Amino acid sequence: MFKAAKGTRLYEDIVNQVKLLIQDGVLGLGYKLPSEPELAEKFGVSRVTVREAIRIMEILGMVKTFRGKGTIVIAASAEDAKKRFSMLSLCRTRDLTNLHEVRGIVEPEVAAHAARDAAGDSIARMEDSLREMIQDIEQGGVGIEGAVKFHYEIIRSVKNDILSNLMGSIMAMIEQSTHITLNLLDRPRVSYQEHREIFEAIKRRDQDGARKAMRKHLQKVSDQLGLPE
Known about the structure:
It is a single chain. The protein is mostly helical. The chain has helices at 10-23, 36-43, 47-59, 78-85, 87-117, 120-138, 144-157, 161-169, 171-184, 188-203, 207-225; strands at residues 63-66, 70-73. It has a two-stranded antiparallel ribbon.
């Protein structure tokens, strides 16, 4: 049923294989996928690659991972799967556009406040998240967890409860956006460098530099997604 993954982006081939199996009715609603080690063996890839593929499939509404139960197919039919697979285009034209508009207004100022407010332990956690990001990239992943943690640590470092709560309220959407952009755009190393520039500005207490670096990062993501200005 599953074949060895091929191509330069192995996780995409895994996603496509599962998508076709759902569309063809081979994998029905409630089907439990094999464990990560088993999938890695069947597809001939690392567990990191399998993990990235599962994350993409969760974003697209194909599967859901339940603690203690494993990863379950949640697309009920071929038609349901096709509707779920259109999620990316919906995000690009609506949700992602709105989200990036809000992020473009708020996050540069959050970064500037972080450059002013961040304590030493916050700086250390930001650097740890970047280290996690690049290590994952070097192992064939796209650095999602590290990138999400980095943005979260910036928010945590700001000494303004209203601003922190505002960003916290959309953090789940930011995480989903990060999954989409890092998985579906060929830019993990570029993204890492952009995050690094933001961090270095925060670390040297350069408020204007942090603001500009965050604005540059968000604009590049928006441009590559083809979002309207």
